Amino acid sequence: MKELRILLARIAGLFTGHRADPDLQDELQSHLDMETAEYIRRGMDPAEARRKALMASGGMAQAAEAVRDQRGLPAVESMVADVRYAFRTLRHSPAFTAVVALTLALGIGANTAIFSVVRGVLLKPLPHQEGHRLVYLRHSTDGPAGENIRFSVPEVRDFRTGAASFGGVAEFSPWTLTLESRDGAVRLSAGLVTGNYFEVMGLGPILGRVTNASDDGPGAAPVAVLTHDGWMKRFGGDSGIVGRRVRFDGRPVTVIGVLQPAPFFPRQVEALFNMVVSSHHMSSLMVEGRTHRMTEMVARLAPGATLERAMSEVATVSARIQKEYAAAYDAGSNHRIAVIPFHEVMGERARLTLWLLMGAAAFVMIISAANVANLTLMRGVRRRHELVVRAALGAGVARLRRLLLAENLLLAFLGAMLGVLMAMGGVKLLTSLAARYSPRAAEIRLDGVVLSFTMALSAAIALLLSFLATLPREGGFAAWIAAGANRMSGGLSKQRLQRGLVVLQIGVSVVLLAGAGLLTRTMLRLSEVETGLDTEQVLTMQVTLLTPTEILSNPAADAGAKARYAQMRDEIAAVPGVIGVGIGSPMPLRSSEVRFEVKAEGKALAAGEAVPRAEVRTANPDFFRAAGIPLLQGRPFADTDVPGGVRVVIVNQAFAARLFPNEDPIGRRIAWTGDVLRFTPISGDWRTIVGVAGNTQDAGLDAAPRPAVFMPFAQELALGGGFVIRADSNVAALTAGATRIVRRIAPATPIENVFTVAQLKEQSVSPRRLNAALISSFGLLAVLVAAVGIAGVLAFSVSARTGEIGIRMSLGAGSGRVQRMILKEGGVLLAIGLALGIVGAFFGAQVIRGLLFGVTPNDPATFIGVAVVMGTVGTVACWIPALRAARIDPAVTMRS
Amino acid sequence: MAAEKLDVKQGTLALMILKTLEVLGPLHGYGVARRIEETSKDRLTLNYGTLYPALLKLEQEGFIAAEWRPSENNRRAKFYSLTAAGRKQLAREARDWHRTADLIAAFLAPKRETP
After folding, report:
1. What value does the mean pLDDT take over residues A376-388?
2. Range 34-63 of A in CB contact (< 8 A) with B
3. Which residues lie closer than 8 Å to A380 by C-beta, 6 or more apart?
4. Can you list the domains of chain B with their CATH numbers?
């Protein structure tokens, strides 16, 4: 109660404080008068009486201040005054203010931008209801392309019944459908899902409804739920879409709802359908084929269930089914299943890159803050005089500290404002980088949380800066005054702190530079990788005349499709500039979704050896020549390789090395094998190898080539198709013409993945380039700031030692000697910083090992280069103050 | 200046002020200071920076009230007087103080030798 009353009185005082001042003055004056009168009454002369009374008062101003502190809320009042004062001080030193605010802005901007990405992609809770209970299951095997082989429907069934920790298990089968609309056909990235999918995922509709159990089974009507992305992109956010029938893959499907915005894994989709939309997903192959693995599995942990328990249950079920259906789990492949929290799997590819960037940004922050700290320290020394005067006028140490804090807060927030402006620009760039690594890039935002982070960071810096400044202990100002405020050397301990900060700056810059160097070399190495195509003048376009569903349900359509492919090829070949057109699928430099187990005639697998698998590809006779893929052995396909003829194949070098090491593969026979073949139109007949093609970097420039088998386009059903178009020059210019031809012959057919080889290569290189460019700019920034830092500290040291240098020179030290002395002073700092930095970089490089390609983490060339760059820049930075020291005129210094 | 000067603690000063006002009735700051200094036989000196914040605090707490009026020799001065709450507070504080003083005295008294 009492406290409350005082607080209220004080708050009232906050507003009446200044008005009440004359009252206080009057009161104190009346006290003084009465006391003076008393002394006079006792017989003192008036002047003496007044002096005595004043002495007894203990200072009128101090008393007024003490009463004021009791009257209002002194912390608030003095804060306002401090901020007002800080504004004035900073306005009077615009250069200092600008340098500090800009330096801080760089650090704060970089951190804000990158933190917003880290938060959006890695830290933010998923938009899914109770997203932390969602798990993703991943089925992997050893060998190339075995990282994620997905699940078959029977396997999903086993886990659904066998793992009690799962409250729900849903299937998601990535699928591509053709959406027919008035503007032509487009291929839609979609997913086929079980009715419980949305319930398991914890996603709800913003319009209409989502699927449920009644949408499962062969009798259900085909329905679609549009994702927010798909709804906006394909239907312009039309709010009347629910209930409409839209043609997908040639059949009408009812749109039942639009989903809330959400990220999908492993890829973004535009619509989700119930299984009945694809007859393939209703086939016995899909429902009963244990090795027909094309389903992603997501599950929701039951209430009370833990991830650990789920993992052990999954392992148990997995071990049981591997024993029970030994034929479906080749022992050499090491089938294993990981249970991964959904939010983790979403960010798994981005994690290392993002933390690297966050680390680099933090380093930039450290360097900038160190620089600002040094500037503040130096300014603090110059301001000693001012502080001493303020102390003499009655400001306590705590009050001075508050004043410094106000100033630093103002500087930091100025920096933060500029930094946020910079971050706004940076976030756009970073979002495009993040989009390549994570489906959650759309969630990146400069929101309240990010801004609070920025504010907290700025406040922390301000606090740090304020407590770096040395103030004497309470009552210790007398010593300062006695020492004379014009001595500016600032004391040994402070110089030690400044030097320590410079060493830190150099060390951190070296670490950043080394990272930048390694990533730049990675990027360069990557762009040097041969694609496997001997020319860049190749355009590829995928043209799907018949979807797998269509051709499987109506194999007779094949002949017509092939005739149309041939017609398109002939017309494209006639375009001026075109020197070759090949037909095949999938396109070179794109990986094939279809991989089958394969066996070689007369070769038994060694015990425990994994069954070899190869990508299934098709090519026509001109394909290799048009694409520029060299045939290392044998012959290309011929027009005589037709249905009914001898089945022939061309394999790639990786395949030959895997199945026929140190043997001539030409003339040997191979066959597709495995349970899956029963359900596909591809036969398990023996096929004779007639040629060996060079490897191509289908899975990206940094991935090992995978074994592949090409079958003659003419000998198989046209399960997919597309054109490789070779030109003598400027192949990109052919895009429009070729697209027009395809459109005219097949108006309803979507054209996808139209890329030149150069563009495909760029897709592999560009994220790395952006990465390297970001770290490099951080590195350069760091070096620059560090150079300014070391030069500044030396310059300060020189100005503090002007007198000493003058004495040395008048005693006979030459200017060369003085210059060497200062250079040595800087050189020591530089050397220590370099040594620490190299050690730090060595450890840092191990952390980013996973991001490197073609360079070892302790690449000597990079490390030497970094040391040379930092050494050179550092030396130049030392030279400037050293020169200044050498020019000191002893006569002038001694006189002052 | 034979007598040793003592520092005066905030809480103690409040008690002294309340007691002074109870004994002498409404009084200005100078009067309060004189009275306290005299009572302490000049072992205590009160500068303005100690006295006036204490007076203000008591006023904020509602234990004393202030009013400008002419003083004995026709100067204007601010007079402080005890309120009802102040009277109660004084009784409470005095009681507490006696208790504490007794306790401390008992502690510091020369110990009897125990057999």
Report:
1. 74
2. 34-35, 37-38, 56-60, 62-63
3. A404, A469, A470, A490
4. 10-106 (1.10.10.10)
